[in-house]
Amino acid sequence: MTYRAPVEDYQFIFDHVVGLEQVTGTERFAEATPDLRAAILGEAGRMCEEVLAPLQRAGDLTPARLENGVVRTSPGFAEGYRAIAEGGWVSIAADPAHGGMGLPASLATAVNEMMSGACLSLQLSPLMTQGQIEALEHHASDEI
């Protein structure tokens, strides 16, 4: 079955259901305009459909394995992770002072759900990284 990212559904939810204007009315999230949200959701959806979803079956057929002390990932997973990292998808909600996009967590959650739906086995690694970013932002000393 072909994965289709629910971009329009999320756009509708953000525009008509959740009242995101209360969030975007703040100085911190003022740049998260409807146009920017649509662009983020559209690009994330495209990547999910074109890059991540095709990797789902490869991960099932050829799972990661340990060979002579070296982990070998499923075919295409390294390139898929690279696309996630280079696109900045790992740090959507992270503070721009630390290289993040500084967007609302609600938008990051929508993107994460699409990526998880496209290829959960690959998306688990960026999700873990997001948790590490959040822990460091809230609890690390300034020296780090």
TrEMBL record:
GO terms for molecular function: flavin adenine dinucleotide binding; oxidoreductase activity, acting on the CH-CH group of donors. Transmembrane segments: none annotated. It comes from the Bacteria. InterPro entries: AcylCoA_DH/ox_N (IPR013786), AcylCoA_DH/ox_N_sf (IPR037069), AcylCoA_DH/oxidase_NM_dom_sf (IPR009100), Diverse_Acyl-CoA_DH (IPR052166). It holds the Pfam family Acyl-CoA_dh_N. Residues 78-143 form the Acyl-CoA dehydrogenase/oxidase N-terminal domain. PANTHER family: ACYL-COA DEHYDROGENASE, BROAD-SPECIFICITY LINEAR ACYL-COA DEHYDROGENASE FADE5. This is Acyl-CoA dehydrogenase.
